[in-house]
Design brief:
The complex is a heterodimer of chains A (337) and B (502).
Chain A (H helix, E strand, L loop, with lengths): L1 H24 L5 E5 L6 H17 L3 E5 L6 H9 L6 E5 L6 H4 L9 E10 L1 E6 L7 H10 L5 E4 L5 H13 L4 E4 L3 H9 L5 E5 H10 L2 E6 L14 H4 L12 E8 L4 H15 L2 H9 L3 E5 L1 H21 L19
Parallel strand pairs in A: 1-2, 1-3, 6-7, 6-8
Antiparallel strand pairs in A: 3-10, 4-10, 4-11, 5-8, 5-9
Helix pairs in contact in A: 2-10
Chain B lengths: L9 H4 L1 H19 L5 H11 L5 H26 L10 H49 L2 H11 L2 H4 L5 H16 L1 E2 L6 E2 L5 H4 L4 H19 L16 H6 L1 H16 L5 H15 L13 H25 L5 H12 L6 H6 L1 H24 L1 H9 L2 H20 L2 H19 L5 H23 L4 H8 L3 H15 L3 H10 L5
Antiparallel strand pairs in B: 1-2
The chains are: A alpha/beta (337), B mainly alpha (502).
Chain lengths: 337, 502
Amino acid sequence: MKLFKWSKLVLAASLLVVGFANAADYPERPITGIIAWGAGGGTDTVSRLTTPIAEKILKQSIVLANRTGATGAIAAQAVYSAKADGYTVMFHAENPQLYQVLGLSPLSYDEFEPVILSVQGSTVIVVHKDSPLKTYDDLIKAAKASPGKLSIGISGVGGQPWVTGTLLKKVEGVTFNPVAYDGDGPLVTAMLGKQLDVSGLAVGAATQYIKNGDLRALAIMKNSPNSSLPEIPYITKLNPAFNDVMKASGFFYGVYVKKGTPQPIIDKLTAAYKYALNDAKFVDYAKTNGLDVLGLTGKDARTFINTWRSQMSWLIYDAGAGKESPEKFGIPKPASK
Amino acid sequence: MYTGLEGFLVPFMSITLVWWIGVGTFVGLYVGAIPGLSVTMAVSLLISFTFTWDVLPALAIMVGIYTGGVYGGARSGILLNIPGAPAAVASGFDGYPLAKMGLAGEAMGLSTTQSVIGDFFGIIILALFAPLIAQLALSFMPRDYFLLAFMGLFLVGSLSEGNMIKALVTAFIGILVGLIGMDPETGQGRMTFGSLPMLGGIHFVIVMIGTFGISEALVQLQTKVHPVKQQITRVTPRWDVIWDNMWLTFRASTIGVVVGALPGTGGDIAALMAYDHAKRTVKNPYPKPFGQGAYQGLIAPECACNAAIGGAFVPMMTLGIPGDSVTAVLIGALIIHGLRPGPMLMREQPEFFWFVVGSLVLANIFLYICGMTGIRMFSKIVEVPKPIIIPIIIVLTFVGGYSIQNSIADIYWMIGFGIVGYFMKRYAYPVAPLVLGVILSPIIDSNFRRGVQMTHGSVMGFFHEMTTNAIPLVLLAMMFLTLVVANAKVSAWVKQLLGKKP
């Protein structure tokens, strides 16, 4: 019996040693990077730009794969199902913070640890260049004239284009007919092919088409002008009623690991990606694509994503689009009103 | 469009670029030949590998890998009846029977020449008609993708191997497997039985490797067939075989380019559709009927999946939209190098477009060289004793299967489908319709629902729109022709109905 106890102790000790060794040697083998959105979209590009720089710091390759669908919940599930050992890293946007309210998944960023919040971006409302809708007012008038008739491209319930539609419903009282695609890339295709009347797109994904004249930008969902599209009006300028909801606007891309990942491993990843964000190539990319570099880590990152969640969850719930009350998950109401 | 034409010559002028394209093509051929190791993965890996390089050599090696990889998939399909890549599923249907007849060398030679011809066809279309094809790709609405994938289901008939009921059974299983996972719109789990790993669905390549690879290994372990002595005196295919089938080559390549250019479909569907087309239109295949060793059954898919490369570059270069999974990764690679393919790049740096065309041409020349020189060595694989070759295959499929999503659950699925595939083969159920179902059902599912959303939830409206637009009408007409004209029984019946009695 005594021997048994001893062996248990030895086992525990050795496990502990192995655990430490793992963290110290991390990363010993290639890391899997799961990108929650489709190739060619915003999340994808930022991930693929920063990762090779981070790889150099980590001295290990990060194999990136896109796992799309269900507003990124499939990717979140996949990373959640993997071990919390830092070998499965998630590249995701803001969406998981809305899963609970929308009844998409029981997961949220509470189940993940932010490695870094890379950038914050905005959505731009676009129409095809041949569209009769010339301005934001035209869009609202047309939508009021035929409620629920204009098709709006969304990337699944809870994605930014969908949030844009909900905001328009809340503030302007207009409704659209949502059509779901697999992210920014397919949405651009659908917009260029005139399949949709209007869509929200990430500024980064839409810029080249707007500058080339293929798509027309009506408004940017932000409370200040965007650096890459300075001539496009921002929404609070068009209608000050948006001031309240634009306090926590837009979307953000970040790098996450499953909760329970040893802190030394997270620190290593954070250091690598922090370095990547300062890379000249990346800074250049962010500038030309209208993204603000955030670089939030640790507690700052947690505060940011939680504030964002309270604002958006309650907004969606109050708009009648949520399946569950944010209260059920202990999401506090936004502090300032 | 024709500005910056000088970019075409750039890859030919630099010895470094020629070298990297050659290396890429050579490596791609082997990556493609190993089941599960995909071109997409190879190119993704190269992004980090070439991160510090200049953009031109980085792109050169990726173009080489792409060209070599698409072609390489047919190798293992012909020699072992295990397709190395989804695009090569159809190449084994007749390629393997040819190898069993001792014609492996000639089959590989034919696959090489036809791949090169198909490739060139795709490149020419890319160079001359890119904006036109891109517009066609953009006009494809969800309902058209629905129809196209639905038309793909007709393939079940071609793959039935004589027993329609059995083929339908496996196709239905495939469709069901394709639906497993989260609903594309609502995120509800479907057929997941509350299990987390199943929520992500089952990757179609896993199903393919299982049903083709593992099951074939099991079947071959059981049956004691002595390896066929291969006639490797003849490697270059006979000129008359190529010449006789020029018209088929042209049609198959056209299918390849168009299907490849559509952002929602790629070389795998193109190759299957081309095989179906060949089987329905070629009256006298030789040396044996389809499925038993017909040159035509190898020519069509090989042309199509390689022509799809040029097709996939069309939307990528002109619109900045990927034509398939490889071009999606290529776009990512170029953005990392500060170039965003699309209309702006076409206007500001048109020579870049021509650089891509030039690299593709060069890669294609290397493809012919690498393809033709390796045949004698590859032919020996068929003659290797089973106890040696089969464990190697199994190990390779496991490595390949795991590497797709780095998921151990995928390995279990692969073994599971391997056992299912084994019993299907034992009881003469064709396995190809199962893979077909898995590939097509997500396309049908998501596009049907997208289309219905676009008609404001009206299913009638969805089908009504098909009759009032050009593309769905053309697709419907093609379906009608396939069903009626190409079917001897039905067309005889129609003739009788019209009073043309003998």
